[in-house]
Design goal:
12 helices; single chain; 16 strands; globular
Length: 385
């Protein structure tokens, strides 16, 4: 099997993966601009009949898979299987109540009444495309004047995953969440969501992961990432599926690898981290708090999260740049935007740059900001990793 890396991958762990593949002699590169597949020296390579494991962005995978097939390769996960993985609640029944609904269904009164009868006054809601997630009040779905309802009205055909609100269990490290890489229907490795804290894995987590892999065999794919978590359920503790993710774009944590199966999945040897992180193991500690906040990606253009932020801030979805990176449920419920520009003179790009100077921004940040302005002026939409 060959690991095919998108030449644009910006992440540190991606560079570590590439270095490992060079050592193993099983890595190739894909150039999206030239639409060609080469070795790391830029030489063309024949992939006919070979199994190809892509590592690329969430939106770039479809094009890469098409090119792999065109050159005779066999992607480990097809485009159709990627869509199935993203719709995983259709193929696996979690212990907690969950369903997939379109935006138009979420504002249908009959559906709202049904949701309230099943989930109560609050629900956990996230986009299938994973740019937004939050616990929200059912009342936001009824309030036609609030920012959240208005954002939904622009995303009537988008799919959202709705589930009951649960209390995630925490220990001295933080929320008990786990990332499992599933390769060829095997649990390759398990890590909690950290790259800094050495930790062990309880055997019940491995057993649950193996149970789920067995149940999903032949249903979606042999390659995916399984995220588990633990929460209180009445008087017991439940280990359940948090979500499934396509493996081509899933990030690594300390004991994770898409390339090598661990022979110590429970981490009896704490320092036996994945080879991708061996260069920083001496910087890790056995103490520390894992911050597991799954922030909404408000910077993604034309996404539900991006449009919601824009409506919260200015009342419309035209906003292209802002310092805001997070919003609260109180903001979602607003009828009037946070910033009232109706009586203000429009702010020009030069005004914004002058403001940054007065705030003491460094020249590097100023240069980055100018590039962002130029980007916004020249691009209606740009898919990002």
């Amino acid at each position: 099997m060959l690991y095919c890396f998108d030449s644009r991958l910006p992440f540190d762990y991606s560079k570590l993966e590439m270095e490992l593949s060079k050592l193993n002699g099983n890595g190739i590169l894909y150039d999206n601009e030239l639409k060609k597949i080469t070795d790391f020296m830029g030489n063309k390579i024949d992939i006919t009949g070979k199994l190809i494991f892509p590592r690329t962005g969430a939106t770039q995978i479809y094009e890469m898979n098409t090119e792999i097939i065109k050159y005779g390769g066999i992607p480990v996960v097809t485009n159709e299987q990627i869509d199935m993985i993203e719709e995983w609640p259709k193929y696996y029944d979690t212990d907690r109540k969950m369903k997939i609904l379109k935006g138009r269904e979420l504002i249908d009164l009959n559906v709202i009444l049904e949701l309230e009868s099943i989930y109560g006054k609050e629900i956990f809601l996230k986009t299938k495309s994973k740019n937004f997630n939050s616990v929200i009040s059912i009342e936001l779905l009824r309030d036609t004047e609030c920012a959240f309802y208005k954002a939904l009205s622009y995303h009537l055909d988008e799919e959202f995953i709705v589930s009951e609100k649960v209390d995630i269990i925490e220990d001295e490290y933080g929320k008990k969440e786990y990332r499992c890489f599933i390769v060829d229907n095997q649990v390759y490795n398990i890590s909690r969501f950290t790259v800094d804290v050495l930790h062990r894995i309880d055997n019940r987590v491995l057993e649950k992961a193996q149970e789920i892999v067995k149940l999903l065999k032949d249903k979606i794919s042999e390659y995916y990432v399984l995220d588990l978590f633990e929460y209180k359920n009445a008087n017991s503790i439940t280990t359940d599926v948090l979500e499934l993710n396509p493996i081509h774009s899933s990030g690594l944590y300390l004991y994770n690898s898409a390339m090598e199966k661990s022979d110590d999945i429970l981490h009896s040897n704490l320092r036996k981290v994945s080879r991708e992180f061996m260069n920083k193991v001496n910087e890790c500690s056995i103490d520390g708090y894992m911050i597991n906040n799954r922030n909404s990606l408000y910077h993604v253009p034309h996404s539900f999260a991006g449009d919601l932020r824009s409506i919260c801030l200015i009342g419309d979805i035209s906003l292209k740049f802002t310092h805001y990176t997070s919003l609260s449920v109180t903001d979602f419920a607003r009828h009037k935007p946070i910033n009232d520009f109706s009586s203000m003179t429009p702010i020009t790009d030069d005004d914004m740059l002058s403001g940054l100077v007065s705030e003491g921004f460094s020249q590097d940040k100023m240069d980055s900001f100018q590039k962002l302005l130029k980007f916004n002026q020249n691009n209606e939409r740009k898919d990002i990793f």
